[in-house]
Each structure stands twice: as structure tokens, then as C-alpha cells.
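Sample pair:
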Amino acid sequence: MRKVIMWNLVTLDGFFEGPKPWDLDFHNYVWGDELHQLSIEQLRDADALLFGRRTYEGMANYWPTATDDVAPLMNGIAKVMFSRTLEHATWSNTRVVHERAEVEVPRLKQRSGKDMLVFGSADLCASLIRHGLIDEYRLCVAPVVLGAGNPLFKPSPDEVKLELVDVRSLRTGGVILRYAPQAASVSAAAK
């Protein structure tokens, strides 16, 4: 079965963007050769990206005209964008899904293929977490406290217990944490 992997950069105080949409300046604290290479490796190990509408729109505004070596991978990979309001997608290889993610993602996981990655998309991630559909959490923690912003993890009545899979320090001071849901936590979340 394909895995859904959430990949996000977060601040030490848990924000994936600053107080304004697309306020991502804190990424500069951890970006470097190591994260660049990891980005390429993750995209090569995946065959689909899952997005909520807001993250999709920001990515679709950036990647089609980007010129670095990550751009062909981002532009070439299949993309699934979940939205109740957006009718058409303009970024290459994008399929718009109006159905709830918790209905569509299990079908996608059953298809043959490589891993699926979720970038940003905190509201989509909250839905996937609530339904036990994230198989791995990959977080790069930036050594900065913003004090305000958009939290990656949204309030939820459910507790999700995780097991540490791997820890990797970066020369930039960031730390990559990889977690998998504990089996009991996944079954409880999926109820």
C-alpha cells in the first residue's frame, strides 16, 4: 500500500508559516545543500503530491516559472488538490478533487505506485490526521521562535501517539524528525 507522508518545515514553536499567508522567511534559517538534496530524493521517491487549495495556489504560482533542479520534479509529478471552491487547476498534472480527502485518500493509497507527499496544507493534514491517513510525519524544525503564525497542528479532541523513526541534524542547525503513528493510535483516529 502507498504511504502518505507529511513533509513540513516548522518553527520551534510549531508554526509552518508566519502571521501572514506564505510568510516563509524562516525557511532561510535551515535551507542549504542538505535540504535541497533531501527535496530531490523525496520527490524521486514519490509519484504524487497532495495539496489543500491555499498551498496549491501558492505552489502553482511559484513552480511553473522556477528554474532550479527541483522545478522539473515539482512540475512533472502528479498533483491532487482538494478544494470545495476551485473548479480548475492551472498547474501541470493536477487533478482537482471536490470530495472530502478522507474519502479519496484511502482510494489513492490502494492504487499501485510510490509514496504520496503532503506539503504545507495544514487544514488538509488535520483532516488526514483525524482519520488516521498519515503514515509518516517528516518535520524539519527550524531553530527559530516566531511567537505568532499559522500552526501546523490544529486543535483536535484526539490524541495521536507517534513513534520516533529517525532524527537527523543539519549543518544549518535544523533537525529533521521522522515519526510514524503507533498502531493503536491509528486505529483510534480512524474511528
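The two ends are 20 Å apart (CA to CA).
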